Amino acid sequence: MTRQLASVIGGKEAAFGTPYDSINPARTTEVVARVGLADAETFAGACRVAREAQREWATVPAPVRGRVIASIGRLVEANTEALARLVTEEIGKPYAEALGEVREIVDTCDFFLGEGRRLYGQTVPSEMPDKNLFTFRVPVGVAAVITAGNFPVAVPSWYLVPALLCGNAVVWKPAEYAAASAHALYRLFTAAGLPDGVLNIVFADGAATFDGLSAALEEGTVDKVGFTGSSAVGRRIGELCGRHLQSPCLELGGKNPMVITPDADLDLAVEGALFAGFGTAGQRCTSLGTVIAHSSIHDEFLARYAAAVEKAPVGDPMGDVVLGPLLDRKFAERFEEYLTWIEPHHTVVSGPTGRITPDNPRGDFTGEGGLYYHPVIVDGVRPGDRLFMEETFGPIVGVTSYDTLEEAIELANLPGYGLSSSIYTNDPKSAFRFRAGIGAGMVSVNNSTSGAEAHLPFGGNGRSGNGSRQSGMWVLDQFTRWQSMNWDYSGRLQKAQMDVAEIIPDLDFRL
Predict the structure, then answer these.
(1) Residue 303 structural domain
(2) Is 450 found in the same domain as 477?
(3) Which residue numbers delimit the Aldehyde dehydrogenase domain (predicted)?
């Protein structure tokens, strides 16, 4: 029986709304869940409910909230296989990667469970006697969190866990094409004992979400917006929040470069480029965009890379494959547009392109009625090419060459994104020169462009975000605000910068 999923607000199911079918992209005739999409008023109403619930949640001691986060981690861990299978079924992510995604939730909970006892402020000395100064972290209030579906459970946890730990309530709008995975995660969170209304899940399309968010910001029921998605939509959300003097947490797209130096271990570089370019079918915000290989090793690297891609298994994501299907029909349509960006001066070195079908097979694999596409390597991309300058969400990687490291860094920065980057080299000087010159928020040395750990800051610059960071202690600044307090127990009014004792030095003294 097909799952029927509706929004849950204040612990109660909302009206079902407009039906939407979340399909299995590996077998597009299979419906994983039928989802009721809410309208803008439902989203705005959820924010009002969250506002009421947040006041009481904020009074729960932070260490107790930390124990709730610990319980979420244990519940997710106990349900790892079931949740990973659902992720694979709904978005086609290879099962091994889905298991890793679920592990990331557990790691995030394990990190933040102790932060409930470490939401430290400071006691600061005053310039006047009989007076103490303090700082406190306080919750922002209500967080509206909007997430993409390529990481339908891990990335939401980067927002939900710290937001809840810090005493905020959350209205979460997941991607509708990953609704079943999101609903399962919501149930695991609420099973940990969250009071009704502290975490709400709203299924809606993009237009209704934007209009509902706009209304909630106008009403003053949203205090922080977290968004993971495209740079174009992130820009609109940033503009909307800016009109209300709010700074959103934006985690956007990337055109992530990988520089390969003459002294690099080419086998290792090929392995990293294969995973970075084609894992999750190239549908990560940190997926490899362009390989920038030194001219002296360009041809050898390209030959090895093409051979590795040719051997990479594509197929049923429950099997041992590198690539499964694309996430959803809209991403398949968009990927076919990217293929039209291949120009006459480019060379496709990876074989066939387009959707895998009986008429366009990959070896013996004919696509099985799923949204499977041939992985594509395009050599000869140049600055100014759309394939070089713009994010291509899917299994396509461009390749170009360079002569000096300064030239490689300039090429790497040119598209204007700044999420992730990588360099393969055995020269420490080259590694540190690259780190200093690259504009990306994340740098890997002899590793792929993809891969995050729960205790490091995750986020980008330029077209990849507004400088906000997720994960680790740095995300606490997204979901708390600093409050200062001064306590004067002198029994008299002491005026700062005026009633200050002064010790006079003899500045003319000389030995």
Answers:
(1) 256-456
(2) no
(3) 18-484
- Domain total of the chain: 2
CB distance 457 to 470 below 8 Å: yes
Residues 134 and 211 in one domain: yes
| H helix count then E strand count, the chain | 15, 22
Q: Are residues 231 and 353 in the same domain?
A: no
Query: Known catalytic residues?
Result: 251
Confidence (pLDDT) at 497 = 86
pLDDT given for residue 496 in this prediction: 87
Mark whether 63 and 203 lie in a shared domain.
yes
Contact criterion met (CB below 8 Å) for 177 and 21: no
Contacts of 156 by beta carbon, 8 Å cutoff, 6+ apart: 145, 147, 172, 174, 182, 185
State how far Cα 127 lies from the chain centre.
44
- The enclosing domain of 428 has a CATH number of 3.40.309.10
Q: How many residues does the chain have?
A: 511
Whether the model pTM is above 0.90: yes
CATH number of domain containing 222: 3.40.605.10
Strand-pair category, 376-379 with 347-348: antiparallel
407 Cβ contact list (under 8 Å, min separation 6): none
Tokens of 294: 């030194």
Tell me: do 20 and 166 sit in the same domain.
yes
Q: For residue 270, how many C-alpha atoms fall within 13 Å in the half-sphere facing its CB?
A: 19
Range list of β-strands (E), 281-424? 288-294, 347-348, 376-379, 396-402, 417-418, 420-424
Classify 104 as helix, strand or coil: helix
Which stretches in the chain have pLDDT values below 70? none
Alpha helices in 60-138 (DSSP H): 62-78, 80-91, 95-112
H or E element, residue 7: none
Q: What is the structure's pLDDT at 2?
A: 83
pLDDT of residue 188: 98
HSE-up of residue 325 (Cα within 13 Å, Cβ side)? 31
Q: Is residue 352 part of a domain?
A: yes
Q: What integer pLDDT is reported at residue 451 of this predicted model?
A: 77
Question: Would you state the pLDDT for residue 500?
Answer: 85
Question: What local confidence, expressed as pLDDT, does residue 454 receive?
Answer: 84
- Is 500 part of a structural domain of the chain? no
Q: From CA 23, how far away is CA 91, in angstroms rounded?
A: 8
Contact 438, 330 (CB under 8 A): no
**Same domain, yes or no, for 92 and 188?**
yes
Amino acid (1-letter code) at residue 54: Q
A 10 A CB-CB count for 175 gives 25
Residue 472 lies in a domain: yes
Q: What is the rounded CA–CA span in Å between residue 209 and residue 232?
A: 15
**Is residue 169, in this structure, part of any structural domain at all?**
yes
**How many C-beta atoms surround the C-beta of residue 285 within 10 A?**
28
